[in-house]
Amino acid sequence: MSEFPTAHLGPNAAARGRMLPEMRHAAILDALRSSGAVLVAEIAAQLQVSDMTVRRDLVELERAGRLIRTHGGAVSASGSATVAMDNEEPSFDARLRRQHEAKERIAAEAATLSMAHRTIALDVGTTTYLVANHLRERAHTKVFTNSVRVAASLGTSQAEVYLAGGRVRRDELSVGGAEAVAQFDKLWFDICFVGLSGITENGLFDYSFEDVDLKQVYLRRSGLKVALCDSSKFQRMSLVHVAQLTEIDVLITDAPPPSDIVAALKAAKVDIHVAP
Amino acid sequence: MSEFPTAHLGPNAAARGRMLPEMRHAAILDALRSSGAVLVAEIAAQLQVSDMTVRRDLVELERAGRLIRTHGGAVSASGSATVAMDNEEPSFDARLRRQHEAKERIAAEAATLSMAHRTIALDVGTTTYLVANHLRERAHTKVFTNSVRVAASLGTSQAEVYLAGGRVRRDELSVGGAEAVAQFDKLWFDICFVGLSGITENGLFDYSFEDVDLKQVYLRRSGLKVALCDSSKFQRMSLVHVAQLTEIDVLITDAPPPSDIVAALKAAKVDIHVAP
DNA sequence: GATATCGTGTTTGAATTTGTTCATATTCCT
DNA sequence: AGGAATATGAACAAATTCAAACACGATATC
To answer: Is residue A72 a contact partner of residue B171, using CB atoms and an 8 Å limit?
Structure first.
């Protein structure tokens, strides 16, 4: 950490010396993560800056949605769940915002489609994460996933959650590896929802080869195989080929795909759901 | 600090210093959850504020529908639940606030102790969660856990995280079950940190029988077995007996335990670390 | 090298919160 | 019932906290 003497008050006080705003922000969020609330005066003393500076930091952090300001300090955002789930995560957050409305429509449609099923497999990804939010009130439903985010989100809901075990991928917070595959390959799901990063007439693609193994497990071990794919991903290939079009039963998207993809999907007997 | 020792009334006096209104609200609701009813004077003494302030808090909380005010205090809103169950486990957030400073000191000590080790097993719980925050910068370290919270927290850090697979327990977000046990029982950890909810000369105790299986795995499969236990848990038994004192190597706590526990620990050859 | 820009600290007055006092209302006890 | 004891709420005072405006220094830009 810091090579300054420190040795002050506080558990990990980065004191004295010039300090970049980002370091202060990190310190504030760190304190918030461990105690759920911070006080302006306390932070100011610990970081050796004026109250006003701390307040300006808090304003900025609040605008970014990382905390909620109150009189005298701030409390943790996202309720006070302290799951550190909604923290920066540049990639995931950025992707979540991108095409958000389309993804939300797709997620709602997916939730409707899942109504009749009791064991649901949920892949990793932003769209599937939004699907999870729709399943919160669903009692007597078992959700199987390899996404730590989905597990954390549904961990406070009615649904029963089963998480695959194994190595946790950084940032994406997905679980992968042979162990996870073996664990889920023994099961059978009524329906699965698989996220994608690209679709062409040649099949389905994703950028992370670490997550592909489990996508294939979901597709192999489910009664109804549903792919979720917003319109920005049409005609895009990515790093890894996940599956052929014939390997899915339903594609949920937000706009009609180009005609060649439609033709290929028809040939593969895939239902196309365009979310309203 | 220029205040009283404060450690007189209440099992967990979260007093001292300034306090955000939100923290008071949380404390009130927490007390309400565990005992079903609260008294104005009691809360005021415990939080070191005037009665009037407590009343204003209660007015606010009543308007929000979180409780029902009575003469002299308030009772729980959703009357049905909250029957003063002592074996009931309070919410994660409530436990995180309770004895927070002590837990943070324990966590820092645990982090220091873990320095020399490369594969670390981290149990579920608030104290172990705080330990995780100290491991964020630790590269080339593998952390094994059954806590979704720990995995989410460390998922954006330098450390490598391995999560056990299985059923996710509601609220606590811990993974449990035969699958998880089998998965970790094949491994060997350099050091493990196990959280507790009680310790007596007869051994270690915990609220949740669902989490005990994995605690025992950690203790069975680790080179150095470390228990984390703040001083409010001395002489307290809980639902489940986790292990004998002889089954751990180190106990980290925040204050010297009562003499009979010390004697029993000495007999069991357990190192006692009192975090400064 | 001069100027603009950004971040920070200080001052000031306003807004919010908290503590205190004192009538009034409620509960408890005999 | 009556009356003592206590809780309550309104009003006010004191203490904090907030935010806008300005000043200062450092860095960036031309």
So the answer is: no
Rounded Cα gap, residues A249 and A113, in angstroms? 12
Rounded Cα distance, A211 and A177, in Å: 9
Average pLDDT over residues B128-147: 93
**Is residue B95 assigned to a domain?**
no
Other Cβ atoms closer than 10 A to A9: 11
Which pLDDT score is estimated for B78? 62
CA–CA distances in Å: residue B109 to residues A69, B234, B250: 31, 19, 12
pLDDT at position B204, please?
95
Among chain B residues, the shortest Cα distance to A136 is held by: B170
Rounded to the nearest angstrom, the minimum Cα separation between A190 and chain B is 18
B248 belongs to a structural domain: yes
Q: Which domain holds residue A31?
A: 21-76
Same domain, B138 and B2: no
- Please list every residue in chain B whose beta carbon sits closer than 8 Å to the beta carbon of residue A173: 151-152, 155
Are B150 and B269 within one domain? yes
Q: Is B75 helix (H, G, I), strand (E, B) or coil?
A: strand
Token reading at B266: 């000495």
Q: Give chain A's domain count.
A: 2
Model pTM?
0.77
